[in-house]
Design goal:
Immunoglobulin-like, signal, 159 residues, Lipoprotein, flat
Length: 159
C-alpha cells in the first residue's frame, strides 16, 4: 500500500512539473506590433485554411518554433519585408479527404492501402478564438508567449 501511495505522489509531482513548464512568459525578448488571422478558401470545393501572421520587433535574433491557434499547432515560417519582421503559421481547415482513403468494400482485403485517420494531437492551452500562443527557443529552453486580440483580416478567395 505504501508503494502505491509513493507511486501516486511521484506521478502527481511529475504532472505538476509538466504543467509548470508551459507557463506563459510575461516579458519576452520581442514586442508584438501586429497580429492577424486570415481565413482563405482554395480553388477546390472544401479546401480552406487560416493564416496567422504576427509582426514583431526585437533587438536580438529570435528562434521562433510554432504557433498554437484554435486547437491546432503548426511550425512557423519567417519573413522580413521592408524591415518589418513577422512569423506566419498556416493552418489547414479543409474538409476534403483524399480519395485513397475512401476505398470501402465488403471484402476487407480490398481496403488495403487506405490511410489511417490521424488522431487529434494533444493541445496544451485553453485559448479564445482571438488568441494564439507563439513558442520560441531561448538558450535550450522552449518558451511560450500568449498573443491576445488577434485581428481578423479579410477572407482570401481564389480569382
Amino acid at each position: 500500500m505504501k508503494k502505491m501511495k509513493l507511486l501516486g505522489l511521484i506521478l502527481l509531482a511529475l504532472g505538476l512539473t509538466k504543467c509548470a513548464s508551459l507557463q506563459f512568459e510575461q516579458t519576452p525578448p520581442f514586442i508584438i506590433t501586429k497580429a492577424t488571422y486570415t481565413n482563405w478558401v482554395g480553388g477546390v470545393k472544401g479546401v480552406s485554411g487560416t493564416n496567422v501572421n504576427i509582426s514583431y520587433t526585437s533587438e536580438k535574433e529570435i528562434t521562433f518554433d510554432s504557433i498554437y491557434f484554435r486547437g491546432k499547432k503548426t511550425k512557423v515560417s519567417f519573413k522580413e519585408l521592408n524591415g518589418q519582421k513577422s512569423v506566419m503559421g498556416q493552418f489547414n481547415t479543409s474538409k476534403v479527404r483524399s480519395k485513397e482513403n475512401l476505398q470501402m468494400h465488403r471484402d476487407a482485403s480490398m481496403e488495403y492501402g487506405n490511410i489511417v485517420t490521424i488522431r487529434k494531437e494533444y493541445f496544451p492551452f485553453e485559448l479564445k478564438d482571438t488568441e494564439a500562443v507563439l513558442s520560441y527557443i531561448e538558450g535550450e529552453k522552449t518558451k511560450y508567449f500568449k498573443v491576445e486580440n488577434l485581428q481578423k483580416g479579410k477572407p482570401i478567395y481564389p480569382n
